[in-house]
Amino acid sequence: MRRRPIGMKRRRKVDGSVESGNARGAYSDAAVARAAGSGSTEEVNWSMTIASPPDTDAGSGRGWFIALGVVLFILGLVALYNAVDATLVTTIIVGWLLVIAGVANIVGAFMSGAGGWWRLLQGLLGILYIVVGFDIVADPLSGAIALTVVIGAFLIADGIFRIVASFMDRGSSMVWMIILGIINILLGFWIWTNIPVSGIVIGVFVGLQLLIAGMAWIIAGFSSGPSTAAAGA
Q1: Where would you tag: which of 73, 139, 175, 228 has the fewest CB atoms within 10 A of its CB?
Q2: How far apart are CA 98 and CA 11, in angstroms?
Q3: Using CA atoms, how far apart are residues 191 and 152, in angstroms rounded to an integer?
Q4: What predicted TM-score, i.e. pTM, was given to this entire model?
Q5: Collapsed DSSP state (helix, strand, coil) of residue 54
Q6: DSSP assignment of 139-179, as one string?
Q7: ω before 53 within 30° of 0 (cis)?
Q8: What is the pLDDT of residues 105-143, one digit of tens each?
Q9: Strand, helix or coil at 102?
Q10: Could you give the CA distance from residue 53 to residue 62 in angstroms, rounded to a whole number?
Q11: What is the Cα 80 distance to its own chain's centre?
Q12: Taking a C-beta distance cutoff of 8 angstroms, is the pair 123, 105 a contact?
């Protein structure tokens, strides 16, 4: 029998250890890849869940939008049907808002670091707000007439401003701005010359605003359906 050289045996052993080491390395790499693959898959699924909410949430939000829109629309119809009561209710709300603004003004005057005259002016203005607010709440009818006068003055001033701005700008919408300004001026003078009948204009404005807000919420509800949420995801 031929004897094999000792060097070959050692080389084979060394080669075998290298081959087994390579096999173990390949196995460990495959295990790490599988572990990393499973972890990355879980992370992707979690991020997709956060990015795309379930359809039930979208449906519930859609229902709330539509319900709020319907309520506002009905309130607008009620305000337009009974503009006198809507005017009185709006006047009372404005009165309480003036009272709250007056209290906030007085508190701000004492807490601010401004000079003494500025604090005195803010305090007096806050007292005026409170007095006017309580007067409006105590007599909503007279308060409604006063608010009507203010609205008429605002419309006249807004109309004049629009006409002057259109002549200074001379843009493509100059004619429409002038027409809108004339309408505002005429509407303001109509309100002034038809007091107290024109006092219901406050209730009409409130009713129209509620109608517009209700329709906006209803449209937002129908446009935010489950299909829209799925498409956005």
Answers
A1: 175
A2: 99
A3: 6
A4: 0.57
A5: coil
A6: -HHHHHHHHHHHHHHHHHHHHHHHHHHHHHH--TTHHHHHH
A7: no
A8: 888 888 877 677 888 888 899 999 999 999 999 998 888
A9: helix
A10: 13
A11: 26
A12: yes
